[in-house]
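Dear colleague,

Following up on Tuesday's group meeting, I ran the structure prediction for the six-component complex that the binding team flagged. I've pasted the input sequences exactly as they went in, so you can double-check that nothing got truncated or mislabelled along the way. The structure tokens for the whole assembly follow below. Feel free to forward this to whoever is handling the docking comparison.

Inputs:
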Amino acid sequence: MGINERRVRERKIRRKKILEAAKVLFFEQGFSATSMNQIARKVELSKGTLYLYFKNKEELYTSLLLEGMALLNTEFAKAVAGKTIWVEKLRSIGWAYYQFFLDHQPFFHINFQFHHGEITKNISDDLFQKCYASGVHSLNYISNAVAEGMSINEIHDDDPMSVAIVLWGSLTGIILLHEGKDHRKFIPDSLEKLIEKSIDILIQGLKK
Amino acid sequence: MGINERRVRERKIRRKKILEAAKVLFFEQGFSATSMNQIARKVELSKGTLYLYFKNKEELYTSLLLEGMALLNTEFAKAVAGKTIWVEKLRSIGWAYYQFFLDHQPFFHINFQFHHGEITKNISDDLFQKCYASGVHSLNYISNAVAEGMSINEIHDDDPMSVAIVLWGSLTGIILLHEGKDHRKFIPDSLEKLIEKSIDILIQGLKK
Amino acid sequence: MGINERRVRERKIRRKKILEAAKVLFFEQGFSATSMNQIARKVELSKGTLYLYFKNKEELYTSLLLEGMALLNTEFAKAVAGKTIWVEKLRSIGWAYYQFFLDHQPFFHINFQFHHGEITKNISDDLFQKCYASGVHSLNYISNAVAEGMSINEIHDDDPMSVAIVLWGSLTGIILLHEGKDHRKFIPDSLEKLIEKSIDILIQGLKK
Amino acid sequence: MGINERRVRERKIRRKKILEAAKVLFFEQGFSATSMNQIARKVELSKGTLYLYFKNKEELYTSLLLEGMALLNTEFAKAVAGKTIWVEKLRSIGWAYYQFFLDHQPFFHINFQFHHGEITKNISDDLFQKCYASGVHSLNYISNAVAEGMSINEIHDDDPMSVAIVLWGSLTGIILLHEGKDHRKFIPDSLEKLIEKSIDILIQGLKK
DNA sequence: CATGAATGAGCGTTCATTCAT
DNA sequence: GATGAATGAACGCTCATTCAT
């Protein structure tokens, strides 16, 4: 029995290490520019071994994405824990998202690239469904807070999920814009200040 | 002679057709996943011919981008023309941006991809400078309107360009999020309604 | 009538100019690395025009070679003119060869490359025959001088042409060796001194 | 385990086979005119496999060269072994060079082409240094013999290396000339006789 | 389970040559 | 006669993937 457990454990560890290495490379170089060879070399495994753990390059990439989303959801859970007022919840989620970007830039970018990138083909339905569910989960944290604001009549009645999309999209867009190759030069504010501004503007804009 | 003029005209037409084909493919598949071969096949020209019109893949891509930015700036110019109140200007710019997305989805995406991609190498300095200038130009339309609002004390005093980034980023993020491969399914609102909401929220949020 | 003559004259001039441009490029970059496009640009003619004057790249290259050989033969003729003693003739030819190398390095190299290079295919029999005849012509200058030495019993009786090959080959080999990418560093003598030495050695060696 | 040893052995064999095929093609067609595809087809391997054994085309070519030089140096070492008189040494080296040409024509030509080609770029410093050192090594065999002749006053005092260049260049030039595409036809002597002649002439010419 | 040699399709790019004008 | 746009085969090289060991 113990022998089997050990095997399972070791598999998990190895899988983790592969993802760890891949994360850095994918982030630094993008999906296409990163080769399975590079990843293999970085984890000090053979190329063939990678295929024992992931069906193909796309699934490896997408698995990474899934991990990132899980992590983000954990952070969102922490962010709303103990908060009772919708404004506080939204503010807290906003900063948690920003902090997640700071702490896990690779995940943040991979996450984004996935939705607009070249990856969708070649991954299994199962994996895709998991990603989808995880995305809904994230948005729920936001829409729940918004729904609270509506229920106590502090926000104009509307579909909470749509408003959640607006909020999430706004923050994401601002971060990505700030990250853009050439824009930073003429933006006087730091990203932190930009985030502060946008959270203020959005919450202010939501209120009746 | 007319002969030379015809040649110039034909060159322009062909160049246009190449860009047209490339636009679709780059949009559908992204930069890396699109090959010069595919583009050539789509315009029914030989691979070699592409290189008579564009120095390399990157310049072809960037030329596309530049066209898109010029187009957008034209729309922004039209949008603010005749408007005297900052709120109207911002609203109008917002809808122009949305309309631009509807009319030129490929451009919209290519534009965005550029700023976060690996394209910058291999293109001439001249081309890069033009792109940069064009980007600044776009943002100026927004920041000018914001500056007006500040000058008449209707917006909290701040750096107008930073606020412009927040606005631009928000709309972009929302559109991209909506476009995301898997999200549309559970968003009840159409993109149009989302845009309306976000413009309302953002303008409301800006006001003192 | 005059109109036709002018045409012929102009053709010759243009042909000359093409060869002139090609000579420099072929020498600097080698046969394969030089493109017809480069040559066309250098003479400020269109690519197509080149093919009106030369059947293909190889024939252009070989025509160049033929010119070089003609030039060399002229120099050899001058070198032996007025000399009556075989030693003087050989010495003079040797220095003329060296001088030809100094003055027409491109020709010298093209000449050599031809015989051991990648060119032979694709050229017309006629052109090939001309090159062959020109080569024999050059060697005759040397073998004639050698034959003289034999006839007055100052050189061991032998086949003069074979001896000519030895002399010609020796000088060519020394020059090429000296020109080699990495040898010059540790050769204390200048090429001129090397040539002097080898002429001395060879003539000394020939004498009974 | 034997498994690893077998792998190493097999790698060596395959490497050898690639070099073998490349040698013939490079000799027949020259560097530029030979494609990796051709080599691959000749060894019945895929193009990609070639790159598992050699970093690029230039390194493959240069590796070939290096092997040839090592081989030649072995022959030179054998040639001078047991010889005590400088004349004998030179004669022996000369014939060893000729024999090397007979046995390894491809090597002989590749060796020579290297020094006047466009290969130097794209190869590692290490490989280049090895080639350089090997070339010097070869010349030393000759210059040492010459130096002996000078030390016992049988050769005019001079720089031995310069004289070595003259000797080496002469023989090389003669062989190459004889090999030239069109010359052999009218040279009555076999290459062997030419070599004999030239060795005689050169040694005779060296003596005081 | 892990390896790494091998594959072969594909990449971006170049270029000698042709041919309609 | 001169042009230059167009071709298409070929180039060196990469890389995701497979499979015998």
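The two ends of chain D are 64 Å apart (CA to CA).

Cheers,
M.
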